[in-house]
Design a protein that fits this description.
Structural class: mainly beta
Number of domains: 2
Shape: globular
Radius of gyration: 16 Å
Number of strands: 8
Length: about 140
Amino acid sequence: MEYKLTFKEYSEALKENRLLGLICRQCGTVTSPPKMVCGNCAGTDMEITELAGEGKIQTFTSNNVAAEGREDEAPYVVLLVELDEGPWVMGNLVGIDPAAVGMELIGQKVSMDGNKVFPGDRYSDGESTRPLFRLQG
């Protein structure tokens, strides 16, 4: 069995500000980031789809201590966003002071606003790309 959408292809699309997912042809469930099988029905008949990059914040964390090699990024906010198409994706919140965020973020609407490429470190297999989100309106 092979991946319909590899993580490398997913990351390369993010670098072009395109958020990709997979839609299951058996049950219609959308997954992102890519997986080998549908998380709902375990089907393998999936096709690549482009997602709108809009959703609502389900949870978040403020980071004041950055990971190794990313010291210049702290503080920052990491979100878990439930996309309008269904899947939950992780991203960073931009356009707001990380020191000013609180529980009022939960449930707020966000839109994808670019991407950030993170360098690899001694624990990873190289760079990775993450979507950036901005609060709507």
